[in-house]
Amino acid sequence: MTFDEISTRDWQAIDSAHHMAPFTDYGAQRQHGARIITRADGHYIFDSDGNRILDGMAGLWCVNVGYGRPELVKAATDQMTKLPYYNNFFKTSNQPVAALSKKLAEITPEGLNNAFFANSGSEANDTIIRMVRHFWALEGKPEKRVIISRDYGYHGSTIMSASMGGMSGMHDQAANEPDFDHIRPPYGFLYQGNQDEAEFAANAASWLEDRIIEIGADRVAAFVAEPVQGAGGVIVPPQGYFAHIQDICRRQDILFVADEVITGFGRTGQWFASQTMDLQPDMMAMAKGLTSGYVPMSAVMVGDRVASRLVSDGGEFYHGFTYSGHPVAAAVALANLELIEREGLIERVREDTAPYLAEALAPLAAHRIVGEVRTFGMLAAIELVQGKDGPVMFEDIGATGVICRDHAISRGLMMRAVRDAMILSPALTYSRADIDETVRIAGQALDATADQLGL
Ligand code: PXG
Prior knowledge:
single chain; alpha/beta; Aspartate Aminotransferase, domain 1; Aspartate Aminotransferase, domain 2; 2 domains; 17 helices; globular; binds 3-[O-phosphonopyridoxyl]--amino-benzoic acid
């Protein structure tokens, strides 16, 4: 029997009996069963009931070149045939990973010239935590260990990366290690009030300096931030925020780390948001769009200050994974980057589809349950509210987002809900027609949600 001859109900039963899916309420999943995704093409995913759903999230913020690209399949097949695996420990390396390291040094901001590879954003961030602390120890300042990040920041799900993240629910489930600290994000929708943008930018950045002074700069190792907070709800900082942040980091001599796992590889209209926002990070985490999610791979770009210290007197760095610099993943990443370049996807986002997405979504801000629409490149959030004046947020945070998401999915659009914000992060290949379809269904989902709530 082939997979497709087994019924949806049987797949759901098999799945919920044996598969513990990530970020899942297992009791609920046993009752309802999961949607079984069977295939994908272009910007559409298909489930085992034959539903065709426009993927407004590019998988989980990662399928930057869209589904079904033969170039990536060929790169994987060729590399698997030639060398499916060999490790990079013990003075060995492979051709694709060396070529990819060079390519990443070229497309990242100046000063980031070395790549360390892992398999997920979480592992990249764990690597950063170790490298940052090891760096300060080599500098003769082993007490510089505290890493500051932001509430609603998402940096991964390992114990360390979740501790670094700002998701309190995750901290409460055994991921709250010492020597991590969190400040408020520059979340204008909640915190700006009647400050103008420049004032709010300076103010929100000052929360970092206040905290460094409280802890003592001699104990703080680094500040880690997503240029736009993705899983936290597409929180776009006010203009000028990161200029202040970088000043503070320099003044207090703490490292500045950009987590570009979501914002990298064209999503903001440049290779990296660091270029869009003029950031000069000491280190950078990347994953997702590196391979467009076709195979797992992540990387840490290490800036010259840290790299030269590790080279000059670091000794052996006792850190790495069996699959660090996997040749097949590296070959897929190279093919993916080549595709992004050949098709001019970054220019297309910057000059055409990102402005078009912003323009197309803007009218939804007038909807009776929408408090704000914001976009940055191919990232968008629609904040749902109970009342527009104030605005008045929903009391049971997150419940309305799920209602709206389900209305969107049943009408053929995959959106993600973060608290009560509806999120979009489509492929860079998304067309104007795809955007029109997205906005049309999102509008219907908003209407259906408001009707269901009697608003
Ligand atoms: N940093 C950022 C900025 C991320 O968005 C990670 C690190 C961790 O990557 P891995 O590959 O370990 O998952 C991420 C991942 C969501 C959601 O709910 C977002 C992510 C992962 C899972 C769910 O939107 N981002």
